Amino acid sequence: MIKIAPSILSANFANLVSDIKAVEDAGADMLHIDVMDGHFVPNITIGAPVVKSLRKVSGLIFDVHLMIEKPESYIKDFADAGADIISVHAEASRHLHRLLQMIKSEGIKASLALNPATPINVIEHLLDDIDMILIMSVNPGFGGQEFIPAIYEKISLLKEYLLKKNKSIPIQVDGGIGLSNIKKVCDCGAEVIVSGSAIFRSENVKETIRLMKKADEDK
Q: Where does this protein act, in terms of pathway (predicted)?
């Protein structure tokens, strides 16, 4: 069964704890926490102190997505704050192997994120160091964007590549995913779905997550 990771980028920050508890009670598998610095992407969100505070009120897996410059300077901060998984962008570092090893040295999982225009071949010599691959299906920075259609093929190509390499690395997809297209995303090979607006702005969060989890039942 696919895993659902609601993105708090679309939550109500004035009621963040209650929104997180709502998705936790509704059966979410992870909490996707977008960290932006206003440089790598044109937006600013939260830092390690907020993650540390949220860790005290949630038992969900914390999937921390660093959309920042010089991520190596902040790995320990977010690990200490309670991250279970840290995603770093291939485009943000010249030394990806070192960066991934830095994450894993903290005893947590390392995920590599790829922007829409970044080819999948950047992972070729990193397969033994990656616990998850995050495919961005929108240009990172803001919630509520539409899914980029070309990403369907990218997901399929990545899935085929991993099968050829005999690697069972989960593919996570983030951006513009809702009930109207989640099945197609899963059919292409996605196993972890990040969704913000479609969950937090739905009339019934629990039912939305339930329907999302059913998206690959007939595969």
A: Carbohydrate degradation
Give this prediction's pTM: 0.94
Taking Cα atoms as reference points, which of 63, 64, 50, 61 lies closest to residue 17? 50
Whether 34 is a known active-site residue: answer yes
Annotated catalytic residue 174: yes
HSE at residue 180, side-chain half, CA atoms within 13 A, is 5
Domain residues of the chain, as ranges? 3-216
Residues with Cβ < 8 Å from 130, sequence gap 6 or more?
100, 110, 111, 112, 123, 169
7 annotated binding-site participant: yes
Angle among Cα 44, 48, 49 to the nearest 5 degrees reads 105
Q: Is 196 annotated as a binding residue?
A: yes
Using one digit for the tens of pLDDT, what is the confidence trace for 172-198? 999 999 999 999 999 999 999 999 999
**Residue 175 among known ligand-binding residues:** yes
Q: How many CA atoms lie within 13 A of 3 on its CB side?
A: 17
Residue in 19, 34, 128, 218 annotated catalytic: 34
Which strand (E) or helix (H) includes residue 6? strand 3-6
Instruction: From the candidates 63, 174, 187, 216, give the one annotated as an active-site residue.
Output: 174
CATH classification of 3-216 is 3.20.20.70, yes or no? yes
**Which of 214, 178, 173 is closest to 198 using CA atoms?**
178
